[in-house]
Amino acid sequence: MEELEQKRHLHNLEAEKHRKNRDELNEKTREWVERRDALNAKVRELVDQAAKHREVRDEMNAKVREAKENRDHWNKIVNELSEKAGKIKKENLPKSGPSISRLKKDLKNLEFKQMTSVLSKDKEQELIEQMASIQNQIKEREKAYESNEEVKNAVKELREAKEKAEAYHREVSEYAEKAQSAHDAMIALYEQADAVRKEADAAQEAFVANKIRADEEHKLHIENIRQVHDYDKIISGMRQKARKAKRKEDETSAKEEAEKIFDRFKAGEKLSTEDLMALQKSGYL
Questions:
Q1: What's the number of CA atoms in the CB half-sphere (13 Å) around residue 174?
Q2: Where does residue 155 rank: exposed (0-12), middle (13-18), buried (19+ CB within 10 A)?
Q3: DSSP assigned state of 1
Q4: Structural domains of the chain, count
Q5: What are phi and psi of 104, to 5 degrees?
Q6: Which of 65, 221, 267, 281 is 20 to 30 Å apart from 156, CA to CA?
Q7: Half-sphere exposure of 201 (CA within 13 A, CB side)
Q8: 166 inside domain
Q9: What is the pTM of this model?
Q10: Mind listing the pLDDT tens digit for each residue in 168-215?
Q11: In a domain, 106, yes or no
């Protein structure tokens, strides 16, 4: 029986060890579940934020397309008005002499020469006089433009068209910049969501691994508990059997003792109180 009790004790220790391991693994499993759920919630939050930036991007891209259409429309008008203004200038301005654009180009070349060339005092003075002459010609021609109503109206109309085309071009740049900014933010959020999703997947894998180990420990705990219960039944049965055998042995011994006392009583020997109680207990009295 001592050997059985020792085996029962060992199985009980094993059962307790596996119970403790199971509980620790279950606690880790709960922690991994909480981490996984928190990470998945973060992924959803990041994806929602990215979706909002995508909406902004698409809205800005739509505005870019609209602004481009308007810009192209006004650029076309600018080209038409520029051609129209050029014809009006040719028709209404003196035929002789270079155009204002040609004069401005010549003036620019002379200014560049003055800045980059080493000139004698006389040459530099000559250059300055040439530049002054060209500037005067430009002013005279510009005055002629201003005094001619048809030219002035054509130039004004062209300038207004250019301003509108430039305004729409600025809108294109502004909306394109906002669209790109929203797109970059969206991509960054999706990349962040992917990184967090990988962490969530790792947490899920850890959860599953811990759950499997916890289930294995629980199975071993139950197996050892059953072994303990089986040993309890065997040991209990053996003890009950031993008690019955002891009781039977005691009864036989008491009966034999009572027979001896009764024989003494029949022989006329005086019995003590203990002897009488023994006879009574064994059924002789």
A1: 9
A2: middle
A3: -
A4: 1
A5: -65, -35
A6: 65
A7: 6
A8: no
A9: 0.60
A10: 999 999 999 999 999 999 999 999 999 999 999 999 999 999 999 999
A11: yes
User: How far is Cα 102 from Cα 110, in angstroms, rounded to an integer?
Assistant: 12
The amino acid occupying position 94 is P
211 near 29, Cβ under 8 Å?
yes
User: Does the CA dihedral 246-251-252-258 come out positive or negative?
Assistant: positive
The answer to whether residue 207 sits within a structural domain is no
117 to 103, 113, 121, 122, 215: CA distances (angstroms)? 21, 6, 12, 13, 93
- Write the DSSP string, 199-230: HHHHHHHHHHHHHHHHHHHHHHHHHHHHHHHH
Q: In whole angstroms, give the CA distance from residue 77 to residue 56.
A: 31
What are the tens digits of pLDDT across the range 27-58?
999 999 999 999 999 999 999 999 999 999 99
